[in-house]
Amino acid sequence: MRAIISPAPLGGTISAISSKSAAHRLIIAAALANGATMIYLDTSCEDIEATILCLRSLGAKIEETPQGLLVHPIPKSVSFGILKALAGAELDCKESGSTLRFLLPVAAALGADARMIGEGRLPARPIEPLASEIIAAGCDLDTTEGLPLTMHGRMRAGRFELPGNISSQYISGLLLALPLLDGSSEIRVSGTIESRPYIDLTIQTLETFGVAVFEERIQVDGEDVVVFSSSGTYRTPGEVTVEGDWSNAAFWLSAAALGNTSITVKDISLSSVQGDRTVLAALSRFGARVIRGTQRATVRPDALHAFDMSARDIPDLVPILAAVASVAQGTTRIADCARLRIKESDRLVTVRDTLVALGATIEIRGDDLLITGTDKLSGGQVSAHGDHRIAMMAAIAASRSEHPVIIEGAQAVDKSYPSFFEDYRALGGHVELEG
Ligand SMILES: O=C(O)C1=C[C@@H](OP(=O)(O)O)[C@@H](O)[C@H](O)C1
Ligand SMILES: C=C(OP(=O)(O)O)C(=O)O
């Protein structure tokens, strides 16, 4: 699909869609609980659908209702491989890194006899050393081809060791698996933990389902190591609501900073543990005016100026903050972007190439992006590179461009935000979709 977006300011009020990150975790926890859970969910997307389909393959019954999802857990008799019901289960993770990295350890802890597949860039995204840790714990994983991978046998409890700087999804996945194991386990994480707020979101989900998580700092060979452990098994809270998504709300809030009209995102928690809530602090540092309300945030445009930031805990904000930086006076440095290379595209390169094609000045230096602001972007034709956040970034950049922005492969938005272009129009944007 091609999106042709004519320059027009965006303004008004929009509801946040349901958080993709929160939804993955809550649906998985519900599928592992001791009874049914009603999950109130306003919106879905391809990634959430992938998690739902995989859990159904593992034996969960997930009913879609007008209010969300009624999740009946994976039957216990099935879940520990006592029945052969899981033999040959196929888990199609589509393009969702979260689905793969969360369900790999969960399925291994269930003793599923399964095959995991994926598409797009997912097969090229890393699963090591998570996979090796699962193999060392007794599960027979064949990862010779990356994806598809096959698994047999059940993972044992014990000590798992992971680095903190490849993907927090490894740690989240193991944390989700721990309550399923017989005996006590710990996860030792060495080095700097990146994307830490996503681990906190996992811990919050576990606590909602009755699992307590403990964290301790120890020294091993003179190095700091964080040790996570947990106690308790999944118990349904009965019902739970998926909160609003800050990663996607960030596109609208940033559009206000880029434009000349204010935008309010409502139905969003200002006290969420989602790290991407710091988009408000970042926009404020750029010079935009930020008004925090109850379950809503408003951004008003003002003169924008550069500042330096780290992407360590907010990788998904980088594309849209780079777009804001491209019209902020001075040079903005976004540091610690290494992990952006292993997302749906090499986002360090695709952020640069896409914004440069639209008239921005950007350079990659090591793992940092250096962006020198200009008053207005030119517009132009770009590819989404199969990456939803690149497509949305380019669409928002159109609101500060002289000429239209044409996005090839604009259907990439379906990965996290299928109604993105509808919402774009609702805020006054001019979008034509072709093909
Ligand atoms: O746990 C999660 O929900 C996510 C963690 C982050 O990945 P990394 O931990 O690999 O940076 C983030 O980029 C991704 O979109 C969602
Ligand atoms: C990287 C993302 O998701 P995932 O890792 O789950 O594919 C994302 O949503 O930007």
UniProtKB/TrEMBL annotation:
Please state every residue range assigned to the domain named Enolpyruvate transferase: 7-422
Q: What is its main location?
A: cytoplasm
InterPro entries, sorted: Enolpyruvate_Tfrase_dom, Enolpyruvate_Tfrase_sf, EPSP_synthase, EPSP_synthase_CS, RNA3'P_cycl/enolpyr_Trfase_a/b
**GO MF annotation: an example:** 3-phosphoshikimate 1-carboxyvinyltransferase activity
Per the record, what are the reactions this protein catalyses? 3-phosphoshikimate + phosphoenolpyruvate = 5-O-(1-carboxyvinyl)-3-phosphoshikimate + phosphate
Q: Which CDD domains match?
A: EPSP_synthase (cd01556)
For this UniProt record, the keywords arranged alphabetically read as follows: Amino-acid biosynthesis, Aromatic amino acid biosynthesis, Cytoplasm, Transferase
Q: In which pathway does it act?
A: Metabolic intermediate biosynthesis; chorismate biosynthesis; chorismate from D-erythrose 4-phosphate and phosphoenolpyruvate: step 6/7
Compartments, as annotated in UniProt: Cytoplasm
Binding annotation for phosphoenolpyruvate: K20, G97, R125, Q169, R347, R389, K415
- EC number(s) stated in the UniProt entry for this protein: 2.5.1.19
Q: Which domain of life is it from?
A: Bacteria
The membrane spanning regions, by residue number, are: none
Query: Can you tell me which residues bind 3-phosphoshikimate?
Result: K20, S21, R25, S167, S168, Q169, S195, D316, K343
A Pfam family it matches: EPSP_synthase
Active-site residue numbers: D316
Q: What does this protein do?
A: Catalyzes the transfer of the enolpyruvyl moiety of phosphoenolpyruvate (PEP) to the 5-hydroxyl of shikimate-3-phosphate (S3P) to produce enolpyruvyl shikimate-3-phosphate and inorganic phosphate.
Supply the PANTHER family for this chain. Answer: AROM/DEHYDROQUINATE SYNTHASE, PENTAFUNCTIONAL AROM POLYPEPTIDE
The record's subunit annotation is: Monomer.
Family (UniProt): Belongs to the EPSP synthase family.
Q: What is the protein's name according to its record? A: 3-phosphoshikimate 1-carboxyvinyltransferase
- Origin species, per record, is Collinsella ureilytica
Q: Which gene encodes it?
A: aroA
